[in-house]
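User: Could you check the structure of this?
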Amino acid sequence: MYRIVFTLVMAFLLNACASGLFIKGNQETSVRELLSTMEACHKNMLGDDYKKLEGKLFFGPDQKPSKNDFSNQQTPSQEEAAAISKLISSQTICEIRYLNWSQEYAPKASQATMVYSSINIEIFKRLSTGSYNYGRAISEMSSALVEYWKYLKFLEINVAENNKESTKQFLREYLLRSSSQNSNDSSGNLIVNCGGRGVNFVTKTCN
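Assistant: Sure, the predicted structure tokens are below.
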């Protein structure tokens, strides 16, 4: 009986330790997968139009914007603006994929991920109307990613602290219940009273 209870307690503790913000991989691998999901959705929604924005607004997974890209003062052409507008109209479809990512990698980060997606959409809107040039757009998208990363780190720490407190509370309640049960259990009293002499549970006496 005691072995079974101990096993259940240990199972709870191990589960609590493992239930952080990221349930599959760590922050680096999880966010990389999210960015790949975003890129794949953009390519899927735009089709051939993706090439019109490649190297200006979007960059491959192994290619980072250069200093010249961040200082690009060019605004979208009419064709490019139409492609960006197509991307904006597909926001809901892409966000379903981002929610699927959240469920698989970080369920507690779903709201933050939707906010991050909405910020990017707002940047796309301003770029499509000419309010932003390409340099400002990718600068703000990069800043949004940094802030999202920092918030995930904060959220991860917060989840870990909450898990610790939940574990402590569980142990406190478990020990209190165990103590109460033992005080009302004649077998428990015999074990305490007999100490190292052993217990005869049939006669309910000490050996």
